[in-house]
Amino acid sequence: MFRMFTTHKIRKYQELTGKLWDFVPGQGEHAQQTYQVLTPNCWESLPDFAGYRGEGDYTTTFMAGGQLRFEFKGVSHTATVFLDGKKIASHYNAYTIFSTVVKDVPWGEHTLTIRADNRFSEESALHLPNDYMSYGGVSRPVILENVSDTYLKWCHVTPYLENDQWRVKLAIQVANISAESKTFALRTEIAGMQMDWGEQELAANSEKVFYAEQSFTNVQAWQQTRPKLYLVSCQLLSQGTPIDDLIDRFGFREIKVVGKNIQLNGQNIRIKGFCRHEDHPQFGCALPLAAMAADLALLKDLGANSIRTSHYPNDELFLDLCDEQGILVWEENHARGLTEADMRNPHFEPQAEQVIAEMVQAHYNHPAIYIWGILNECASDTEYGRSCYAQQFSLLRRLDKTRPCSFASCKFKTDKSFGLPDVVAYNIYPQWYHDAPVATYLDDLYQWVQRETAGAGKPFMITEIGAGGLYGYHNPQHSKWTEDYQAEALKKQLQAVLSDPNCLGVYIWQFCDVRVSEEWFDNRPRTMNNKGIVDEFRRPKMAYQVVKQIFEELA
Ligand code: ADA
Questions:
Q1: N or C: which terminus of the chain has fewer CB atoms within 10 Å of its end residue's CB?
Q2: What confidence tier does 192 reach under pLDDT thresholds 50, 70, 90?
């Protein structure tokens, strides 16, 4: 399963993952040995490869022919793809979708091999030793489709209210991959209303975006308490015969920044959220749907209403679940804690911008995503870093004019970049990394932003706050790393942040304990980030009930 709804009724497709593939490691003591693994898969879930950093070949066979489109939802972290031994695609970054089309494939059995590589190197500016794990594997689904010469690439729906009536702007990209120009008819259906876009023409080997608007009378808005979703069905027809289709899902909702607030359909939102890594001791970053749903059930039990996808774009299946359950999402491109030197790696800017482009193209329609984030805790306190933030915000705003954008800073009173985002966001750890009283520390920081920076007057939120706690560890003095200390610290932190009138909300760092790179062992007990409210097996720590009570009190 790769979406919570059917994406095609005309286009033929099959999921190639969801069954056993052959896995063959490229290096190490088990090099060239064959293992059978269920995909999607991270090789770290196999005992022989729990700590393996290298290449691994995943191979499957399938029956097909004609014009084949392969869509890879995620390969961690660098992919090289071969069809019958011939290279057909490559991609960097574990967290975004890539695809390729292969023409004139003869009908019959074919072999697909995906070589995943999770090694660190100068060529990898985003995946590097860090306070989270860069896993290895075919970590998200792989889909095989048959596409016609002209086919639908994506459909973006932009809902907006005009005189209390819902309208949508539609943008649909069509590709013509044949050597001659093609004419076709385009048709859409939303909420039972069909729209005929008329006959269109597209030159050979070209792509084009078509635009239209439509208004609706009796549709329901997408609200957190009633997350009503609608399908948008697009069809391409040739001489009256449907030759391709694409179905996506959206919600009628608007996000606006009004003064120091963010509004969803005209109502100020209040964030009670968690930062969540895609991480699990049995699945690595390839969480199956049931594990995603179980995490969301815990988050709702805790009274959370939002998730921050720290620190990379998430699996669209997880975003589908957030859409369906009214859980707001801060989604961000892939970066964590990069220094100016890291950002000066010549691969950094192109790789970071590619993630933004792929993230927005694939996730544009998710109503749950209310804000885009970039470059968590990177060098926003330097002129060079600021120039990278500026470049990425302008790309983001070109791709999506409907959502605010921001970045989570840890630069305290040295940040130079608050003139760039729509929302000012800070990661702070009073009562953990230092023992400043939370309320005064927070207010002092807020006042500095108002007095000294171009972030004055913008919405202000805390995107990380928390403390470490080792599951099952207690001592009489409640020292740091005991569950007791974590619960006491979070109580102080949340009460201060959620009672501050200048703060529109909080993301707790973090939902669950997660694995980190071996290189981070020295300040991470168990070589894990232990600030989860639950441990890696989702077992609640003492802080769970503290957070639940505070979030519930704050309706
Ligand atoms: C930073 C960072 C997180 C995590 C956290 C911590 O704020 O954004 O990824 O490393 O610190 O646990 O210290």
A1: C
A2: confident
| Ligand 1 cavity residues, CB under 6 Å | 131, 310, 336-337, 376-377, 410, 427, 464, 509, 529, 531
Mutational test site, ligand 1, from 311, 377, 481, max ligand atoms within 8 Å of CB: 377
Residue 534 CB: number of other CB atoms within 10 A?
19
Is the pTM for the entire model greater than 0.85?
Answer: yes
Q: How far is the CA of 323 from the centre of ligand 1 (A)?
A: 27
- Distance separating alpha carbons of residues 366 and 388, to the nearest angstrom: 26
How many whole angstroms from 131 Cα to the centroid of ligand 1?
7
Does residue 3 form part of some domain?
no
Q: Which is the closest atom of ligand 1 to the Cα of 529?
A: 12
Contacts of 57 (CB under 8 A, 6+ apart): 22, 23, 24, 25, 26, 113, 114, 115
> Is residue 445 included in any domain, yes or no?
yes
Ligand 1 geometric centre to CA of 552 (Å): 26
In angstroms, the CA 366 to CA 372 distance is 12
The secondary element (H helix, E strand) that includes residue 361 is helix 348-363
Q: What is the pLDDT of residue 555?
A: 59
CATH number of 202's domain? 2.60.40.10
pLDDT digits (tens, 9 = 90+) for 502-542: 999 999 999 999 999 999 999 999 999 999 999 999 999 99
**Distance separating alpha carbons of residues 177 and 479, to the nearest angstrom:** 64
Distance CA 483, CA 532 (A): 10
Residue ending a domain, among 250, 280, 303, is 250
Cα separation, 106 vs 66, whole angstroms: 6
* Tokens representing residue 362 in the block: 């694939």
Average pLDDT of the chain? 98
Q: The dihedral of CA 80, 360, 328, 524: what is its sign?
A: positive
CA of 344 to the centre of ligand 1 (A): 22
What distance in angstroms lies between residue 483's CA and the mean position of ligand 1's atoms?
19
